[in-house]
Amino acid sequence: MNHEKLRKLIQEKRDASYFFGTVDDTTIKKAEEKLDLTFPKEYREFLEEYGCGNIGPIEIFGLGPNVESVPNVEWVIKNLRETRDLPNYLIPVENIGDGSYAVVSSANSSEHGVMEGIVLQWNSRVNDPPKIANSFGEYLQERLLNV
Fold first, then answer.
1. 125 vs 136: CA distance, rounded Å
2. pLDDT (0 to 100) of residue 70
3. What is the SS3 assignment for 127?
4. In which residue ranges of the chain is pLDDT below 70?
5. CATH of the domain at 19
6. How far is CA 111 from the centre of its chain?
7. What is the DSSP letter of 146?
8. How far apart are CA 137 and CA 118, in angstroms?
9. Tens of pLDDT along 103-141?
């Protein structure tokens, strides 16, 4: 992820944005243990620097103050695993509408034949979700450019 480019995009749109802020390594590791997965590098870097938040209508799931609702990724994953059979190696990062989510593949996704760190458009009604970005950073930058 190009941190400088991302920071610049967020700074340019600061009037329309809110991010929780930094999340420490202990909190991230606890979430990984609780969810039984490992966050890929770029998503972990986002969590460390921004936590979770939004720019305009784009709400990026992550870690932050409220554990029992969106945009907390722990809550989203738990909810989608229970109600929609979200595979345990996928991490939803945004609700993109019509029952679909942008999901990043976790570090243990290769065990399931999915390359680590790519972003897919997941929907519980689709067996083979299409790839929409090569990485979380690429996905996030593309989304922010279109706000």
1. 23
2. 82
3. coil
4. 1-2, 66
5. 3.40.1580.10
6. 20
7. T
8. 10
9. 999 977 777 778 889 999 999 998 889 999 999 999 999
How many structural domains is the chain composed of? Answer: 1
Question: b/e per residue, 69-93, with b = 16+ CB within 10 A?
Answer: eebbbbebbbbbeeeeebbebbbbb
19's enclosing H/E stretch is strand 17-19
d(CA 100, CA 123): 5
pLDDT of residue 103: 97
> 121 pairs with which residues across the strands?
102
State how far the alpha carbon of 49 is from the alpha carbons of 24, 83, 87, 90, 139, in Å: 9, 30, 26, 21, 17
Bridge partners of 52, per DSSP, are: none
- In what side-by-side order are the strands of the sheet with 53-55? 17-19, 53-55, 58-60
Q: Which domain holds residue 29?
A: 3-145
CA distance 28 to 38: 9
E strand spans, 24-133:
53-55, 58-60, 90-97, 100-105, 119-122, 131-133
